[in-house]
Each structure stands twice: as structure tokens, then as C-alpha cells.
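In response to reviewer comment 3 from the previous cycle, which asked for concrete evidence that the modeling workflow produces usable outputs, we include below a single protein chain processed end to end. The sequence was submitted unchanged, and the resulting C-alpha cells are shown without manual editing.
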Amino acid sequence: MGIFIGAHEIRNRVFLAPMSGVTDEPFRVLAHKYGAGLVVSEMVASNALVEARPDIVRRATGAGRVFPFVLQLAGREPEWMARGAELAQKIGADIIDINMGCPAREVAGKLSGSALMRDLDHACSLIDATVRASSVPVTLKMRLGWDFDCLNAPELAARAEQLGVCMITVHGRTRNQFYKGKADWAAIRSVGQAITIPLIANGDGASIDDVNAMLDASGADGVMIGRGAYGRPWWPGVLANQLDPGCGIEEPAIDQQAAIVFEHYEQIIKHYGVPNGVRIARKHIGWALERWRDKGLYDQAEMSKWRARLLKLDNADEVKSGLDELRSQLRSAAQRMVAA
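The workflow returned the following C-alpha cells.
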């Protein structure tokens, strides 16, 4: 079942969610390389992009390295959203995604992100300005609503479609839930009943069982994976292949997983330089260590030793040396598990 965003046919039904501080260019490039159907940039504030704030401009890179290149914009003023959309296209965006789902206080507190679901007329003025300024497809990401007394995602989605939005993604929580409790995938179904454009379900998807349950409960056309991809940028592609064989990749062997983590580390250093890259890479390495512990490749005590070593070093080459040593250990551990 193909998903089209405007004229773009997306290669499979499992997407990588935009996550601030996670889905930077190095992470997205790898997720795309290893089979994610679509990858979306970190949230980019439209006014800061227009003002060329260096940290925001860095978030907006990736054109030419992934296709289609999706840049997510956030804002609260139609003029800035329009100008941000114009600039996004100039730097290579093939699709522009509007953020109306971020629950963070520093975003919603400034009447952006999910706060816009409290005022649909204003939200629609931003959508209209963005669509009018764009010659590329525009998509929209939202939550179920602000709280349980304001579950207005179906209305916002329907109005967004009328304004020209080409795809809707819904996280199955309200803003006031943040990431607590469990995402309500069944509640997303009412959004699909209000629109004719593709619907993507988001929230708590981590395994193929989750993906199938999300699709069954929501009636969505595809899913978006967020925290389930922590430490493993190849995971959306693996889930895509499990969902629709031949549309993604087989799960990499442990040795290859370690090689991808090493590749990711090198790309982070190249993107951010030293020492920022060493610091930024720590969370990604830490997540990978937890994944391998959960697979039984070492116990908690051994993982703590690796964390103490790899996450406290400031020398980039020493971290690389440690990752090489870890890869060798993982290879041996995986062989022992197979032999057993």
C-alpha cells in the first residue's frame, strides 16, 4: 500500500519521527540509509531560521543526503511561517512539516507546538500561510488535543486538508499527558474518518507487534517511530521490512550494529566537530549500550563499565578505540549465544 505526499511516493510505511536533540542530520542520514520510509528533521523555529541563528540553521541541513528532505517548521505567526517556508525551500526542502504537537513547556508556553490546538482558527492561519508560501507539499503533525476536554484533532485535520495539507500525523496523547501513560492508538481512528489524505500514527511504537497493533487500532496508513529508534537508527527500516517484506532491511547482525554505531559516531564528530560532537554522541552510545544489554550480550555491571569508559572520555580518538574494542567483545558474545 503506497503512501503519497504530493507527488512523492514514500518507499514504505514506517517513518522516523522528528525528535529534538536526536534526529539531527547524522541520525537521519543513517536512518534513511538503512531503510526508514521517511525521516523528518528536528523542529526548526521559523523565525530563528529566517534570522539564520547558527544552531537552528544546523538543524535544517540534510538536502542532497536524504530524499525526500523533510524540514519541520514551528512558529506562532503567519508571517514567520511563510518566510520560514520560503527559506526552507531555498535550502532544499522537498516537503515541509508543520509542528503542532510538541508538548515542551518552552514551546507550548510560547503559544507554539501543541498550544496551537487550543485555538484552531489561529492554527489554521499558520497552515494557510505555510501552504500559500510553499511550492512543495506541506504536512502536519499534531496530538489528540490539548487535554481530554479538548480532543479536537479530527477538526484540525479536516480543516488542514481543506487548506492543502497533504498528510497528517497524530501522536496518540494529549499535550497535557506529555509522554506519560500509554498512547491511545484507537483515538487516532477518528482523525482518519475526517480526512481523505494519508494518516500516520505515532506514539509508543517500538516492535513489530506494536506497529501492527497501531495500524489495526488507528486505521492509519503508516506509523512513525520515535523513542523506539533510540540507539538504533536502523530500526525503522527493520520494522518496515517486518511489516512489508522487501520494503526495508533485515535486522543487522550484532557486529554490523556495532559498525553502524561507530559510523554514527564518526558522522557526529564530522557534523559538530570536537568537543561538541564527543558530548552529543554520548547519549546515542548510551542508548546503544542499553539495547545490547537488553539482548543479553552483557550484564548490567559490564554495561556500567562501558558507560564509565565511553561516556566520560573527551578525546575523540580514544572513544573510537573504545568502540572498536566493544565491537570485538560484542562479536564474541553474539557467537557464544549462537553456540549455546
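Residues 18 and 272 are 19 Å apart (CA to CA). We consider this sufficient to address the reviewer's concern, and the full set will be provided in the supplementary archive.
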